[in-house]
Amino acid sequence: MPNATRRIGILTAGGDCPGLNAVIRGAVKSAARLGSEVVGFRRGFEGLVDPVTYMPLDTKNTSGIINRGGTILGSTNSGRFSARVGIEDRQDLDPELFAEVERTMSQLDLCGLICIGGDGSLSVAQQFHEHGIPVVGVPKSIDNDLSATAFTFGFDSAVACATDAMDRLHTTAASHDRIMVLEVMGRHTGWIALHAGIAGAASVILIPEIPWTWENVCQKILERDTQGKRFSLVAVAEGAELPGGGLVTREDPTPGQQVRLGGIGQIVARELEERLKRETRVVILGHLQRGGPPTNFDRALATQFGAHAVRLVFERRFGEMVAYHPPAVKAVPIQDAVNRISRVSADSAGVVAARALGVSFGEYPPNTSPVVKSLRDTEERPARPGGPASLRSA
Ligand code: F6P
Are residues 286 and 300 in the same domain? Predict the structure, then answer.
């Protein structure tokens, strides 16, 4: 490869999400126009260390991927760099790994590394930066739980998928006078449930940030009966806590690994059926929210992120991360995005508007607006005019 001083590495780490390929394409195309080459590492950070696995990327092999889900580079959320998740205390990497990464970068003559990842992966990138490895970050997540950026790409696609599911459940629920419960992802935040719940006309939205009671949920469904609406849609975030407290998880967490949430939808459906003596069904949307093509919003955002990340490398602004501050794409320190998460504020515009329409969050006590603080941080974000995310505006 000629022009080695301007060769850039890129990788996708952690769970996949729609838009990763659009970032890769955006970075490769813009780098090519600046006379630079790009090397893609396979399977996230793992590709950087023994056995080093990479592929040269060019405008040919990244052509036609802007609308393709997943990542052509592959990714993993297990292995030697795994589980450095944001709301838990930082776990330091094995120092030997830094030496290996430095060796790989020097052997391939890389002048910088673009890491596309969520809070855990960006926390690894931050540690790279602290060890003098020239890195820039690109924030991704369907959960939209990253601080320091108004939106992560992947979120809009996940909301589109969940909203489509709500629309489909709506017609069958109405035909059979049933309660339909839709469990969506989001980890410890309710962004997907809130946005899909509003867009899909849910009567009840249950999110981790707002404590709720069975009585209040039932009350809302019974209230609809009095209006002649004998069906109801309930959107529940996988990370919502049960009224008695506690998260619903798939299994006991493996030490050092991230807990796998899921299953609260079934509990909600069973309890509502028993309490209301009403036919209830549940759908757990799961990884459908992570697969498939990105929405046009995510394609555009991811492309901008890719091009901007290349510019940061050229300007040697290492330790920084691209961030969306509508209408601009800016750079912020990676440090600002890790070890904290962004959660829905209970007095945010989306929650307030939904309440104004009569949507119930099952709050305890009812009809109040407790401002729930995040585990480490709570942010209100600016509006995205014209898009579903503008529901979040103040
Ligand atoms: O962070 C994205 C996410 O899809 C969460 O919403 C979900 O809890 C988790 O990842 C599932 O991860 P896994 O890839 O381990 O199934």
Answer: no
58: in domain: yes
Looking at the structure of the chain, the number of domains it has is: 2
Q: How many helices (H) and strands (E) does the chain have?
A: 9, 11
pTM of the model: 0.90
Active site annotation includes 143: yes
Expressed in angstroms and rounded, the spacing between residue 187 Cα and the centre of ligand 1 is: 7
Closest atom of ligand 1 relative to the 118 alpha carbon: 1
pLDDT of residue 103: 97
Domain assignment of residue 321, given as a range = 3-153+294-326
The residue nearest atom 10 of ligand 1, judged by CA position, is: 15
Pocket flag, ligand 1, residue 185 (CB < 6 Å): yes
Give the Å distance between the CA of 27 and the centre of ligand 1: 25
In the reported structure, the alpha carbon of residue 37 is separated from the centroid of ligand 1 by a whole-number distance in angstroms of: 32
Which among 16, 119, 143, 298 is annotated as catalytic? 143
For ligand 1, atom 15, which residue shows the shortest CA distance? 260
Largest CA distance in the chain: 73
Q: Is 27 part of any domain?
A: yes
Residue 305 has what pLDDT? 98
| In contact, 121 and 46? CB cutoff 8 Å | no
* C-alpha–C-alpha distance, residues 232 and 203, integer Å: 6
Q: Which amino acid, residue 86?
A: G
Q: Is residue 258 part of a domain?
A: yes
Place of tokens 């930066």: 129
Q: Determine whether the shortest distance from the Cβ of 145 to ligand 1 is under 6 A.
A: no
Average pLDDT of the residues of the chain: 90
Q: Ligand 1 in contact with 234 (CB < 6 A)?
A: no
CATH code for the domain in which residue 267 is found = 3.40.50.460
Q: Measure 64 CA to ligand 1 centroid, in angstroms.
A: 27
DSSP H helical segments within 85-154, as ranges? Answer: 95-107, 119-130
Low-confidence ranges of the chain (pLDDT < 70): 1-5, 83-90, 253-257, 365-394
179/254 same-domain check: yes
Provide the 10 A C-beta neighbour count for residue 67. Answer: 16
